[in-house]
Amino acid sequence: MRRVLPSTQALACFESAARHISYTKAAQELSLTQSAVSRQIIALEEFVGVALFKRTRHGVLLTDAGLHYAKQVGRWLQGLERDTLDLMSHQGEGGPINLAAVPTFATRWLLPRLPQLAQQHPDITVHIDVQTRPFLFADTVFDAALYAGTPEQVARWPGVQAQWLMDEEVVPVCSPQLLATAQQRDLGRAWLPVGPEVIARLPLLQQSTRPQGWRQWFDAMHVDAPRALDGMRLELFSMLAVAASQGLGVALVPPMLIEQELARGDLIIACPQPLRGNRAYYLVTPALAADAQPSPALRVFSQWLQGRAQEIRGGKTE
């Protein structure tokens, strides 16, 4: 079946002119004459049967249709350029993976492990962009997503298949200095854990996206905590980790996201009683037809990722 596609030259001229709102600047960027750019855009408008620019005495302006189409074309050209550069750099072997990921999980768990992937599979390159909400893969260049959410949220994500990686468990963490001061201990004994009733008396750091987190933890521990909703509010686990390491309070954080802080001694697990919520981490990919297969690079990455998740589930953290 013949595809209904305009020429890439016409698209490149249109995208540049739309970005600059100027045929002259587009011509300078593309090393063409202004008349050549104008001809390409006229040909594109004739091809699609829609006016993309309106001409004024002072130059050109995008029509509503042109503004919408320019956003789409810009994304398509960017993806095409990225794939072309990847093909050139890999000389046809291996390949890239365009990954959408929740930021803290990507920064603190995935990135420290990617050198292992690079060593085992040097022909695979992972590109990562931040994405926290479900999206339509058809509207993006992403091949997969690392997503944190509930099973219900994953089930409502249309047109995808999801591989469960691990559940999210949080524990109270703080700086050793905070716990030593609160318990009137010397710093050398600060690593000794305390009970939930002691945590209830310490300053708490709240996660703004999970305002009931501490209350749920204290309820699970069967401890009365009148101040469970009090304390500084921060959005991301990474923010909570920094605030806790600076002695500002106790935070509920998954240990797998603070491995470096725990190893350095900047943070300690104040009470080793975890709370498992209904959130988990998933590798989400577009649903494929029954006879279709994922790309070799994505298949290898998926298997490698499952192995790293198994290490966490088995209690190992590298």
Explained architecture:
The chain is an alpha/beta fold and 318 residues long. The protein has 3 domains: 8-90, Arc Repressor Mutant, subunit A, CATH 1.10.10; 97-167 and 279-315, 3-Layer(aba) Sandwich (D-Maltodextrin-Binding Protein, domain 2), CATH 3.40.190.10; 169-277, D-Maltodextrin-Binding Protein, domain 2, CATH 3.40.190.10. Helix content is 43%, strand content 20%. It is built from 13 helices and 11 strands. Strands 3, 4, 5, 6, 9, 10 and 11 form a 7-stranded mixed β-sheet that branches. Strands 1-2 form a two-stranded antiparallel sheet. Strands 7-8 form a two-stranded parallel sheet. Helix 1 (8-20) crosses helix 2 (23-30) and helix 2 (23-30) crosses helix 3 (34-48). The radius of gyration is 26 Å and the shape is elongated. The model has no long low-confidence stretch (mean pLDDT 90). Residues 6-63 form the HTH lysR-type domain. Keywords: DNA-binding, Transcription, Transcription regulation. It comes from Comamonas testosteroni. GO terms for molecular function: DNA-binding transcription factor activity; sequence-specific DNA binding.
Topology:
Layout: H1 8-20, H2 23-30, H3 34-48, E1 53-56, E2 59-62, H4 64-90, E3 95-101, H5 103-110, H6 114-120, E4 124-130, E5 144-149, H7 151-155, E6 160-174, H8 176-183, H9 196-199, E7 206-207, H10 213-221, E8 233-234, H11 237-245, E9 251-253, H12 259-264, E10 268-269, E11 275-286, H13 296-313
Parallel strand pairs: 3-4, 3-5, 7-8
Antiparallel strand pairs: 1-2, 5-11, 6-9, 6-10, 6-11
GO molecular function, one term: DNA-binding transcription factor activity
Domain HTH lysR-type: 6-63
Keywords: DNA-binding, Transcription, Transcription regulation
